[in-house]
């Protein structure tokens, strides 16, 4: 990139925004002191072509915010009391590493767990690399809530995945958006969707709500929450009954079709309507649109992974089967199978090095959830590694999704010591009390006397940070060199320049893991001194260093799609074909047929008579990213309070008026949000804002910045029997009841503060 220098000594630096996972390109004008003064979108960046959403426009406000953490803090009072000693970064690293070393020697590396947050680019992969180096399988990133069951279903069935692939204007003729709302969650994808529609593509949206995306649809299917698997079976039934599936592809490239046909035969459009609430005629229309208008793309959506026991499994299997029998797999404009990085592009998995974790000399146990969900475990990873080896010699790039531990299992390992004790948790740029479900279980774990060390690295004093033993200040995306590879699953990379000098002792996410790693690793060269040095290792196959990419004319590489790969190589499954009934599921004791066990057949999370409605928290809003950005004054003016959508007739039934406070209750407790009447919403469904807290409310115990007042994940269940086959939590579709009310009905629990931790 040719530097644009100004007479006042300022220059333009090029990076990308990480205030959400889209990573839209940004340009910053930086003065002679290294301070950013203005910004614009980068029109040469292919992600958003120069456009920025409302979140990106807050970058300078967030960078300069008075509430940012600037220096490491060590707890000196009781946990949650808010008494701190300011220490240096080096002292913090020395003390934390010493405690981790002691725990590893006394209780094994598995006694340490990591909880990651939203996509801070060096943080996720560096934490995985550290876990593999240290020897613990108990690591989690926010992707655990987004795609574990979907990834496992697709890789088991195809040996490839379609998760991060897009639709193509002019080629894709039918688009199915199922369980997502890109108008709010992914503006670049929504723009691409609009381009497809402008060139004649038809749009089907599956969602209980009439979202902004659904408002553009040619056909909206308002499915009852947690019945997505039944809807998939109804669509499969119509395609088989009417002979509109791809018979040639099924005959030549699929196994298990007879079992799928037998299961789908029960799901007539009429029966499917009874369960899902979607009109039978619309089910028939949708099946014909998807099967006959092609090429067609059934896009990934996170909702299907968050439906819980039975419902999630049948949904992700059913959607995967639809992609296969429609003949759209790896078809231009259809369902592209992700291309792995080639030998001339990027070195992803060798630098994460999960193989070191598998063979680690100090690791003697599986992850804490392996006895509950064995398919997500070290053994599961080995099986997938073996099954996909002929296509992926280094492993499938999404293998982290087979290894992710379960958050509630980590919490139980702390409080119940089951199946073995977890005694330390490292939280990086995430807020488990808000974004990972089962918030009360997380709180019990973080305040337990059995937890000997809780460390949080973040930009803000979050509720979890308020309970921690050490709090470390994180740099924002302007304060660090950056490299976006989207967890390795996007099969592209974008490089970003550092655009601001870090304030105080803010450090980039890599430094936490690298500095702990250098103190604890048996290989002194395993952790380069700087994140730029680590980037050089990733980029080595490209023939250029980080600095050459960052300062070059082009700072990204996107691999051109290759289609119909299976015709030459087959599918990366044990049989070499699409396994509509995956043998890997059978190997781990998971029902491999798309048998529907969602409502009304599933394990109930609460009595239907007492809790007659279903809630679907977690829907994205354009102004916020999960629990992030609550500090922005600009965004607070747009979205100042938590909002719960409810149908007007349902609101009237329970005495609730538009704009007034309403109470949402479950067995776990109750929260308060503002009612917003939405006549398009299903009568049996409410849509609360997710991840809500208020940084302006009182910090520390018992308030914790209002984490219990309106946070939907404070009342989501976390019992293992309610989670999916892959350990995904039932974050959407849980039973609830509502009533009018202004009182904050979920006051923080009063408790006696106890001094618990490290070395009192």
TrEMBL record:
The alphabetical list of record keywords is: Iron, Iron-sulfur, Metal-binding
Q: Which Pfam families match?
A: Molybdop_Fe4S4 (PF04879), Molybdopterin (PF00384), Molydop_binding (PF01568)
Superkingdom of the source? Bacteria
4Fe-4S Mo/W bis-MGD-type domain mapped to chain residues: 10-67
Region span, Disordered? 741-760
User: Which family does the entry's similarity section mention?
Assistant: Belongs to the prokaryotic molybdopterin-containing oxidoreductase family.
The name this protein goes by in its record: Molybdopterin-dependent oxidoreductase
* Native source organism of the sequence: Prauserella salsuginis
